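Researcher: We're teaching a course module on how sequence relates to structure. For the next exercise, students receive a sequence and then see the predicted structure as tokens, so they can try to spot secondary structure elements on their own. Here is the exercise chain.
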Amino acid sequence: MSLFHIDAGKEWRGGQRQSLFLVREIYRRGYPVYFVVQPKSPLHKKAKEAGLPILPVRMRSEADLLAVVRLAVFMKMRKCRLAHFHDAHSLAVGSAAASLAGTPIRIMTRRVDFPLKKNFFSKRKYQKNLDALIAISKGVKKVLVEGGVDPQLVKVIPSGIDFSPYTDLLPCNYLRKELSFKPKDFLVGIIAHLADHKGHKYLIRAAKILKEKAPRIKVIIVGKGPLEMELKQQSRKSHVDDMVYFLGFREDIPQILCSLDVFVLSSYLEGMGSTILDAMACSLPVVATRTGGIPEVVKNTVTGILVPPKDPAALSEAILTLYKDKKLGRELGVKGSEVVREKYSAESMAGKVMDLYERIAVKKGIKLDGEHKD
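Model: And here is the predicted structure for the students to work with:
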């Protein structure tokens, strides 16, 4: 018997990192798991480096019949008893394959709070033949229920992170050396895919306000995406290209985080924002928007400062507050670190997911082999 985890992501983003953490923890606990990934993708590479059992399957679209057949054959051969889908593409391909292979338990994780399309196909996709739909926050669950999903089907299990990169003392002058910043420069950073819902354009507008009030503030933007050229153009036209730095995709995220003074997430749609967890693990104060699952992690004036989405003035004011009050920033950072280490570990997340597996398996009279530990 085996468990299949399917992630059709072609890029390395927060969702792929979460599925990797989960599969790694499940494998460590002795469950016979297979990780289905896009061939030669960043996730494929990282899963291979982690020594996980991988099945590379090209999934070109949600209607890729060849991928459905290939995956169904793999499931049948390896006696798949549980299939876990990690995105919309893998749900479409994987659920069709699971039906052909007779896989009895099917689970999906939903990480975004985009509204569901209100049509027959969307309702069928997110309810039919699923035993559970994991939402990474109450905010995501709310959107799913509003989209017509049975609330009894949705289980809230927050994301978790690996704290091991933050156990060693990392240099706080890493970026300052790379970009030749002055000791008194105040570094504000965002790490996010350059997509519209992440709200980078509002952060750049906030940067224009900040330039007039505190020219020592520097804004660091880490990530790639479809809006890269547009955002750089906005930065130039707003005359803040001397204080806004685009670093592109980076692998050295722990070092970058430890170089910052404040972490920002300016999204107007956000399932949870797992990079916030990393920032809090580094004891960084957080400025984030009051949207989706973010307020479940960032408690206003306790672990960070929350502002309304799409509000550059409020965003700039919160950043300016932490620039002027370094003591407040340190207090928020320390409290944030305590909270994230207590509640948001990858081990805790995986344990809750495996508890869900076992409860469903018991109801169906199915044994999932492994050395499960609470």
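Model: If you want an answer key for the exercise: The longest strand covers residues 2-7. The CA atoms of residues 187 and 298 lie 20 Å apart.
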